[in-house]
């Protein structure tokens, strides 16, 4: 085919376009301070890309740091050099970080000085300090032309799953996948422009970093908190200082914003929450505190940020908030994504029937890095199998039950922990609840609830008896100071299960 007709796409084009349109406007901020304009960001990314030539086409470049402004330039530099961005969550244990470095075959690690010091002892891969001397000399390298011939299927991001159900795997995301995510975000959720800002409250190695492309395309500011971590008051202050603020936050972070007791900051416009369950009670508290600024996403590393969504308007009804059924759902299929629920026989489940959620579309990964068995198990029959259980209602709203591994089967009945947790959280004294199955000779499994809060088991029993079927009630309550969570704030069910074995 004539090369002129071959479709070419590199995510660097998003920055190229923003720089052409918005040249001298502020692009990247550290707290209140402007670090780069769009022109200077483009130039830095290209010079860094020029220095990456030594690494070779397709090299995996790991980035391990607390949130910092350089992550934005590194991301675009890696894409411009046709290398692969491998972000590593800075909260992981150094051994877990080393596993990701080894699995990805990364040949260079860019790290903050703190994380770099932890990593250097355990890996032979060269570690360069972000902002250090070598880094600065890279930023002065000769400036290459932007990439012109990237095949959209080229790997752009190796997304290591957060490993709530086992050892993390590298989901392979291409330029095409991330472009589909970008377009869907702009179509469904948010319409930023050059007078808007993306505040990076959550780790940029995960959801917040994935949202860099759509906001860059629209010329919206990238604002990285000066602390590099999520501090609720700092986050709320930044939403007073910068215009038109949006952010992606995990549900646990939204709860921490509410706990500050502060009113909605003047410029806070949109909070996209997701990546883990948002309980209806917590969502109502958040909407009471900040108003209807919330959007929910349901996604996975394998389908970044984009399976279903509950738009801002879906959260409200003519007479107040939307119904509990709607607020407790994960919304409906995202633009460009086909979502289905399959029954045990692999055929589409009927309305209200629970089965495995599957999806397909341009946003779906091409497989797991160097892991054909896991790829074959996940990508079957043209569908990505999410491992999540759920059901559709007649209007196309999907309700997520639980990951299939978390379902409790007691006396032959399926019990979905999320349903029991939702009801437990309606009790005013319950701060957090985590429900798992424990092995039992008579019933196969029984329900055990881990509770954070000052309350008696008998009170909880009475509360549940008024609200859900008797057989779903926990046979045991364990009172704890906090629930075990991974570094993204997700409750570690496998750890709770291990405690009741
Ligand atoms: P990860 O790949 O680490 O982002 O984890 C993805 C998993 O998080 C999904 O498969 C779901 O089990 C869960 N998840 C993501 N979004 C939501 C949501 N909105 N509500 C409940 N669980 C979610």
From TrEMBL:
It is an enzyme of class 6 (ligase). It comes from the Bacteria. It catalyses: a long-chain fatty acid + ATP + CoA = a long-chain fatty acyl-CoA + AMP + diphosphate. CDD domains: FACL_FadD13-like. Its EC number is 6.2.1.3. SUPFAM superfamilies: Acetyl-CoA synthetase-like. Residues 419-490 form the AMP-binding enzyme C-terminal domain. Belongs to the ATP-dependent AMP-binding enzyme family. This is Long-chain-fatty-acid--CoA ligase FadD13. It comes from Mycolicibacterium vanbaalenii.
